[in-house]
Amino acid sequence: MLTETSLITEETILVANLETRYLAGGPDDGVPIVFLHDGAWGGASDVTWSHVLPLAAEKFRVIAPDFLGYGGSAKSIRVDVSPFAFRIRHMFSLLDSLGVTEPVHLVGNSFGGSIGLRALADEAYRGRIASVTTINGTGGPWKAPDMAKIGDFDGTRARLEEILDILCDPSDGQEAQLDARFGWAAVPGHFTAMRGPHMPVPAALRVERPADPYPAPLQGVATPVLLVECTGDTLLESGWSKALQAVLPNAQAELLPYKHCPNITHPRETWDLIGGFLDSTIQGGK
């Protein structure tokens, strides 16, 4: 768990009667940046963003929630809708509770990046989004075969270490990252929340769901988007950022030479890239 600093504090509040943990910091009147964590086993706001948030909070108002089912938030999920939909609604309900009504900049890694893109694809939320930055989060498509390697988890630290090796480049903070991620993975309810949507349904009860139109709803959306693709990432198909850039007229694609989570292993370099994009986007919007 992230140790509280003078810049970043940890809070838990009720949102729609569901415990919701989030990290926050920076000036109260700063431009709001919402950081969205990855969806791997043991994912949480501090696991994904602990080294980036203090850098961002020097200038921006930062808010980093734990998604439902993850971290210190309620282990409450919906299995009748997509894994994105109910978490997007919960995220904006949290912002409402915090009095954040102006458009926010969404910054996500992996599943968190996909949440940002899926929110942008939804006309109900598009007006509340000033920009989206996604680091190796595609919104769902373009998965590579290695994605299957991080799905199974037997509850052991050794298995989580194998998953972490796929997600992250080697770094001095690897043991601390493993400790934090394993701590959240062991919280009661997390395993069930992760496994629940994948439970087999008897043939007699199976209902064919409508085809997913994504990414077509993003076609022509002019909101600024930063697509960060990593050349060492084996979980996604190479070139996914160019494919999305072809759909989004105001998207910028950048490459980094790392694995799936450079925000964890190379926080300063990652933040410099994101911060530069945010500065240009904010200045361009004035």
Describe this structure in words.
It is globular, with a radius of gyration of 18 Å. The chain has 11 helices and 8 strands. It is α/β, with parallel strands linked by helices and 286 residues long. The chain starts with 7 loop residues before the first strand and ends with a helix. It has a single domain, classed as Alpha/Beta hydrolase fold, catalytic domain (Rossmann fold, 3-Layer(aba) Sandwich). The chain is 33% helix and 18% strand. It has an 8-stranded mixed sheet, with helices on both faces.
List keywords for this structure.
single chain, 286 residues, alpha/beta, Rossmann fold, 33% helix
Write the layout of secondary structure elements.
Layout: E1 8-15, E2 18-25, E3 32-36, H1 45-49, H2 53-56, E4 61-65, H3 85-97, E5 104-109, H4 111-121, H5 123-126, E6 129-135, H6 157-167, H7 174-185, H8 190-195, E7 225-230, H9 240-245, E8 251-256, H10 262-265, H11 267-284
Parallel strand pairs: 3-4, 3-5, 5-6, 6-7, 7-8
Antiparallel strand pairs: 1-2, 2-4
How do you describe this structure in short?
This protein is α/β, with parallel strands linked by helices and 286 residues long. The protein has helices at residues 45-49, 53-56, 85-97, 111-121, 123-126, 157-167, 174-185, 190-195, 240-245, 262-265, 267-284, and strands spanning 8-15, 18-25, 32-36, 61-65, 104-109, 129-135, 225-230, 251-256.
